[in-house]
Amino acid sequence: MKTEILKIKGDWQEVVDDCRATVKKPPLGHEPSSEFKKRLLIAEHSPIRDIVVKFRWKNIKYWIAMHWKTHTWESRVDTQRNDRQSRYDRNKAPQEAPVDFSGDPNLQNLIDTWRKRLCYQASSETRKYAEDFKVALYDVEAEISDVLVPNCVYRCGCPEKGMGKPCGWFDKMVEKCPDLASTDIQTRYDAYNRIFWGDAP
Questions:
Q1: Which of 68, 86, 133, 189 sits at a 20 to 30 Å CA gap from 198?
Q2: Mean pLDDT confidence for 28-38
Q3: How many domains does the chain have?
Q4: Looking at the domain assignment, is residue 119 inside a domain?
């Protein structure tokens, strides 16, 4: 599996200028600092939707692609129509039939979707695509990649406990890395990213 980041649509100068417009300030005239980006992404203010990440996964299993299609943002899967392809009979195609998936989520979509797909309650195969995307995005937009965290980190506790189905990952990781349970969001996200990149105990 290999995530291809095809294009970043929109830019941080547009985002910061939209933020400034809401408080009657003139355009900044340049890209904001990394610190500003981090604060804005954590606050999830609406101008973050100015940025869209266009990406592609080739030869993803159909059933995994359908997990991603349940989320509300622009995405495409190559057709299985019998009159438009000849690789297999759509009526008999197995769930593992390979398809290409491409998507155009904005930054709010990314935060919301990756909360669910980085969760250890998601299928492991689907989670691996979420993790691969996070790694690929880091090389292009590190601040965005760093706010892609599972729901338990986002919410500072496992929301699946109420459903009687906790996986136990959060509690286990908090024992090793107490900062994961910090009430300071940036501290919590930093702790998760240390774990994700293998830099935590």
A1: 68
A2: 95
A3: 1
A4: yes
